Task: structure prediction
Amino acid sequence: MKVGTVIVGSGVAATAVAQRLLADNPQASVLILEAGVRVKTKDFGLWEQYMLTRQTPYEQYTDLPYPQRDFPGENTSAGGTDMPLNGARVFAYGGSTLHWGGWAFRLKPEDFHLRSNTGEGIDWPFDYDELEPFYCRAEHHLAVSGDSRDPLLKRSRDYPFREFPFTLMDRPIADGLKKLDFDFGHLPIARRGVSGEPSRHAPCQTTGTCKYCPFGARYAACNYLDDFIEWNDWPGLSVRLGAIVDRIITDGKRRVKGVTFWDRETGASQDVEADRVIVAAGTIESAKLLQRSVSDDWRNGLGNNHDLVGRYLVTHPYFTFEGLLPANPLRLQAEMDFPTLVSRHFDSEPQQAAGKYVLVSPPDAVGFRLADSLQKGQSRAEIDAALTGRNGVQIHGMIEVFGRHYNRVTVAKEANGKVKYNRVGIPMTQVEYTKDPDFDQRMKDVEAQVGEILKAMDAPPTGTKSLSWRADHAASVCRMSSREQDGVVDADLRVHGIDNLYVISNAVFPNIGAINPTLTLTALAIRLGDHLNAGGGV
Ligand SMILES: Cc1cc2nc3c(=O)[nH]c(=O)nc-3n(C[C@H](O)[C@H](O)[C@H](O)COP(=O)(O)OP(=O)(O)OC[C@H]3O[C@@H](n4cnc5c(N)ncnc54)[C@H](O)[C@@H]3O)c2cc1C
Ligand code: SF4
Result:
């Protein structure tokens, strides 16, 4: 089989690149190879099932749940800090956007200059102004609802849809932030609003069950790929499911000529020839695919002459802190399953060297659950007392940590050197991660700061808190750099030293700032599409 471009993976990165390529070259041949299978979406039966059981249809395609994480589960761990992959990725058609929250932030200008500002890591090869027009296009691609008047960041185009209003539940946190004169705003989110334009996609109906959206209003890559295919937009686009790419085939040192994949059903191996190969397999699998694609010219794997593929692994530690509201006269309780208020006050240049962070008012900030009370058979008076009485209130957040050479992902092997495979048929992962020695002190500082906000909300901290290192935002393991000795891909996302091999994934971020990565990933994917359309890689 021979195609123009082969893309490994069918997540948002793959979908955005494919769309860009084909929109400009409708006759181009693009083959997407996806290890996972199809999960039914936009289905009311499944939605009702989710409502009653809280089980989502894609759960069986995520990494295994804790504590089955260790062999024969998804990953083995080494290093001092456990960074589990469980639940962090979906191996299915549409990839991890099947379960993402849709929070769609832009990085801030200082994030592109980490090295210059702090001495940590490396700078991006370009700055915010270069990416700004692509952010606008990404917001339209993902159908983001946001506040176009937010003065926080320079923008050249409005969001496609208006921001969601703050909920009543946001009120205590908003009051606390206001008292302290801390900035906050509307959380931008990839949920389609209503517009006068004809659209193939339904707008959000605010049912609030976004872990399973019955309308497809919350962006999921598979819905877009389905549309391209069902509307026959581009006959040259094809998607092959259950195709596990095993290695990339080289053609001398500077070129690749295709990939070898396994058919999950039959176990048969097949080669596909391509003019260009784009690796969009998610952070962890993109690095592992380069690592295992060894050749005489690339004995440590493609683009790995400097031993950087898989290294500088980071994610966002996700924290929660609780305070106690003495009373809840407004009868606050969760209105929707997504947040509407964010504070980026500490996601700022002065905080960058210590680790910047964002604070979010979670959708269930106040602990009261009407459904739980009803299920317990409580009387109306009991429910009323529980609702209006003392209630826990939470603030959530994410903090930036910096890449370290010793933190990395590799293929997990048994003692005899044999590769282990996960239940999808992909080689299993070894995660080696150790947090920085000063991280715990930084979290104490964050706790003290959030404590001040809770006090300003008249909800003194209870000491109840949590911290998760889960790899939802794993990044940087194929980082982008101007110089070959500093990274794996160049500013065009081309693997250093190979003319027609690209990586598009959170893996290419030199650093991830304090915010969720997918809007930036989509902006980079659109930028890559433009580069390819201008003749890149052929
Ligand atoms: C619970 C959760 C909530 C999240 N919420 C947000 C949010 O609100 N905002 C945000 O910005 N980000 C969020 N994220 C992160 C977001 O999901 C990712 O940034 C994004 O989906 C990554 O897209 P991708 O296309 O790079 O990779 P993926 O979507 O992971 O796609 C990679 C695809 O490649 C396939 N694949 C892997 N290896 C191979 C192989 N060898 N051969 C063939 N196919 C292969 C996989 O099956 C997968 O389908 C969240 C993540 C989690 C876990
Ligand atoms: S709130 Fe909107 S995005 Fe979420 S499930 Fe309902 S319609 Fe879908």
